[in-house]
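Quick one from the shared queue. A colleague (R.T.) flagged Heavy-metal-associated domain-containing protein as missing a structural entry in our internal table.

Convert sequence to structure tokens.
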Amino acid sequence: MENNVLTFKTSINCGSCIKAVTPFLSEVGGINHWEVDTTNPAKILTVETSGATAEEVLEAVQKAGFTATAL
């Protein structure tokens, strides 16, 4: 399956936030790698996927208690 890169504006703004969202994103199948640029004012979450959808990523972030908007 082709790799895709999804980007989201989030409320994930620090290391503790990243730690909190990690188990939720780990549950989503098809995510190869993800990272949050906490230095960017928009707190950009970049997700490399081989099957996970934007909706699945958004749901995981929201379950962790954060907001996210697809870019």
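Residues 4-70 form a domain with the Alpha-Beta Plaits fold (CATH 3.30.70.100).
The chain has a mean pLDDT of 95.
Added to the table.
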